[in-house]
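We modelled each protein-ligand pair independently. The example shown here corresponds to the zinc ion entry; the chain sequence is given first, followed by the ligand as SMILES.
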Amino acid sequence: MAECGFFGGLTKRSMGNLKDLQVRKRVFSEIPGLSGKIPRVLSQVHGTKIFEAEKGGEKILEGDGWVCRQEGIIPIVLVADCVPLFIWSRKNPVFGVFHAGWRGMAKSFAYIAATEIQRVFNVKAGELLASAGPHIGSCCCEVGPEIKEFFPSEDFIEDKKGLRLDLNLEAKNQLLRAGLSENSIYLSSECTVCSPGYFSNRQGDSERMAAFITLKEGPLCPK
Ligand SMILES: [Zn+2]
């Protein structure tokens, strides 16, 4: 099968509050190559439920991740500091996007996401690529000691600035456990709290950015 192209990313603060339906419709209709595709969101609960995004389903489901293999749909999760996790295949037109903050990571959501996409579409871990997009970095992810029980000690940095959690390291280790190889995992070092241009829940923003992934239309994408 020919390799298929994907188009994904994270909207920025300047694009507005993507939690808002009208803003979402406008932004996605203005991005070249995406107009006409249907954006799909979830009612996110910091859980581990994953749905297959398909045409026709209009109901807003309670969950934190999408897997998909259809053209014409833009699966979306909304984030502001939580990890937007993208997973896609280098061999098959299958892909997913997941919302994983510390609560989700504590429930092994990155591992669950990477194993679920293999199970649902019968694809191998070796063909999968993953990317953790901009999120609260270990520079800013201050946590209380009560969080320690949920993660291995290597995930924490403790110095005079306090106790902080490294979500990138945890995401990487969960993806490795799910069978992905180290060179198939991309980790963004952009921190949504201290880098400009992002909404940050920690900074008091109630607005959200959209993490999205979809199939590029064209001859490389088998129907
Ligand atoms: Zn930071």
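The first strand starts at residue 6 and ends at 10.
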